[in-house]
């Protein structure tokens, strides 16, 4: 049960970290890399142009055009980039943790010896 709770905690912390990483990456992009953000916006416009007119009825096209736009695709791309950065940071932290705190060496215990006055399948502790 504790392992399951620990797994949920790790996943939740990664989701929260991804949220803040998206904001941080967008701020860095606007401050230092505006040309690359414009290129990424052009890329999302190209993706949207490729999927803009799906083969659906009018109601489906209306919903698709309302929900799938440049901003949605840009948000998805930014989230994927931020998640990759977060996974890399967590991986580096895990490697550094193992470097500083190596797993403990287990000492080899002597194998149990058979009990002298019992059949050979019985072992003493």
Note the beta-strand portion: under 5%
What's the overall geometry? elongated
The level of helicity is over 70%
The main pleated sheet reads as: none
Q: Any idea what the radius of gyration is?
A: 28 Å
Uncertain stretches of 5 or more adjacent residues:
none
Distance between the termini: 31 Å
Class of secondary structure makeup: mainly alpha
Question: Secondary-structure element sequence?
Answer: HHHH
Number of distinct helices: 4
Indicate the mean pLDDT. 82
- Integer count of domains: 1
Write down how many β-strands occur, each being a DSSP E stretch of 2 or more residues: 0
What does this structure look like?
This protein is an all-alpha fold and 125 residues long. It has one domain (2-100). Helices cover 72% and strands 0% of the residues. The chain is built from four helices and no strands. The chain has helices at residues 2-32, 34-51, 58-67, 70-100. Helix 1 crosses helix 4 (70-100) and helix 2 crosses helix 4. The radius of gyration is 28 Å and the shape is elongated. The two termini are 31 Å apart.
């Amino acid at each position: 049960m504790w392992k399951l709770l620990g797994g949920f905690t790790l996943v939740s912390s990664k989701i929260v970290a991804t949220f803040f990483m998206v904001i941080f990456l967008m701020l860095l992009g606007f401050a230092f890399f505006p040309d690359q953000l414009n290129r990424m916006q052009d890329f999302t416009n190209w993706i949207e142009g490729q999927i803009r007119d799906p083969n659906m009825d009018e109601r489906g096209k209306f919903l698709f055009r309302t929900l799938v736009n440049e901003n949605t695709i840009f948000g998805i791309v930014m989230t994927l980039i931020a998640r990759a950065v977060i996974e890399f940071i967590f991986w580096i932290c895990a490697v550094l943790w193992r470097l500083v705190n190596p797993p403990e060496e287990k000492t080899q215990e002597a194998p149990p010896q058979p009990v002298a006055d019992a059949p050979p399948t019985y072992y003493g502790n």
